[in-house]
Amino acid sequence: MATPHHARRSDTRRRIQDVALKLFAEQGYEKTSLREIAERLDVTKAALYYHFKTKEDILISVSEDLAAPIDELIAWAQGQPRTLDTKQELLRRYGDALWGATDLFRFFQENQATVRDLAIGESFKSRLTALSELLKEPDSPLTAQVRSLTALFAMHAGMFAMQSIAGGAEEKRAAVLAVALDLVAQADADLVTG
């Protein structure tokens, strides 16, 4: 059981992560300083340094926390048969993980150059590669492979591109998932006809 001190420390850590991620997404990673994060939290820089020494330390901790469900999903899918049902369940679960980490993916989207230069960029890329390998069949026709990869990227694009389309958040989320599921089903059908 967590001690009151440990719970407070963990709560402060979470607040720092949340505020930093919002600032990184709003202003950009490069334009956000540790001083600004401390000011937004109404704490001293020393208090911030107690938890994180650098902006990258904050970003790595956020990425690790929010990526844990994706790592669990990859491990789950690797132990499943490579069927259409498994691929579609992978997309459903991935959608849940994405929507649970909206601020992180917004940061990735709006800070692509920075992400490529940071350690989390390679980590994120390796997760996407693992997911794409689980969705496509290695010897499938090119159109099937493209459909499988497009299903994955439709999930990402849908988080941001759908903002300008009328409809409620859940309705949009369901529409994005439906398109991704259709794409992977068509890729599976290409295996038979291809």
Describe the structure.
- There is one protein chain.
- This protein is mainly alpha-helical and 194 residues long.
- It has a single domain, classed as Tetracycline Repressor, domain 2.
- It is 81% helix and 0% strand.
- The chain has helices at 4-27, 34-41, 45-51, 55-78, 84-100, 102-110, 112-117, 119-135, 142-161, 169-193.
- The longest helix has 25 residues, at 169-193.
- The model is unreliable at 1-8 (pLDDT under 50).
Biggest sheet, open or closed, and with what strands and sense?
none
Compute the number of helices. 10
CATH class: Mainly Alpha
Instruction: Choose one word for the global shape.
Output: elongated
**Which band does the percent of strand residues land in?**
under 5%
Q: Please give the number of β-strands.
A: 0
**Average pLDDT for all residues:** 86
Q: Which oligomerization state do the chains in this entry correspond to? A: single chain
Rounded to the nearest angstrom, the distance between the terminal CA atoms is 56 Å
The H-level CATH homologous superfamily, spelled out, is Tetracycline Repressor, domain 2
- Which stretches of 5+ consecutive residues score pLDDT under 50? 1-8
Query: Structural class, please?
Result: mainly alpha
Question: In CATH terms, what is the fold-level topology?
Answer: Tetracycline Repressor, domain 2
> What is the second-level CATH architecture?
Orthogonal Bundle
